[in-house]
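For the sake of transparency, this paper describes our internal protein records without simplification. Because each token names a local backbone shape, the row as a whole describes the fold. One such record is reproduced below, unchanged from the form in which we store it:
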Amino acid sequence: MKLQQTTMRTFSFIISLFCMCSLQAQKQTTQVYPEIYGLRIGTDLIKASRNFWDKDYKGFEISADYRYNKRWYLAAEAGYENRLKTDDQLSYTTDGMFLKVGAEKNFHQNWLDMNNLIYVGGRYGFSLHSQTLHSYRINTGNAYFDEEMQYPELKSNALMAHWLELVVGIKAEVVNNLYIGMNVQLKGLFYQKQPEGFENLYYPGFGQKYSGNIGVGFGYGISYLIPFKKKMIQPVKQEQNKTP
């Protein structure tokens, strides 16, 4: 009788232990983590701070991106710039708005519920601006005569520029839903409307034009993610050892 009771207790212990292990394994395999989909809105801190330390500049940039799927994001930037440029040869002011739209792909393998980005993307950029030529110096080509400075105050309206740019950058979450990021841009101008008797040297959103139609840029921004939905994902299960 005692042997039978001992056997039953042992059998019950084994059954309960098996059930506990099964429940624990099920709990582990069904554990899920959220992938957040939403709209991230921010601003360029370099342009914003430049309003305080550069008396010849006024401007801002608003940026946004939306997570389309696991890797791809739709992105856009829009803003305004007013910039006075003065040197020994000329002085001019560029004033106008810009818009850039495109997409970027995230190459960062996030852990669990992280949502950081290391991305490469592209943009189509467009600016609509005016330019005022305040002064310029005429080169007489004669060492005996001084170069003559002209002050035409010539304003040209309805100027425009179109360009493409390659963007490489990172965005990292510093606190819940708040991100700090930086990026570099390589830009190629493919169409522009120029003022008569002069040329565009600066474009809102594009920046300074260098050799040919090439431009470069750098951005350092802060943004906030507004979550719209959470897609629950399950970690990849490890293959269990198969017994023969």
Q: What stands out?
A: Confidence is low (pLDDT under 50) at residues 25-30, 238-244.
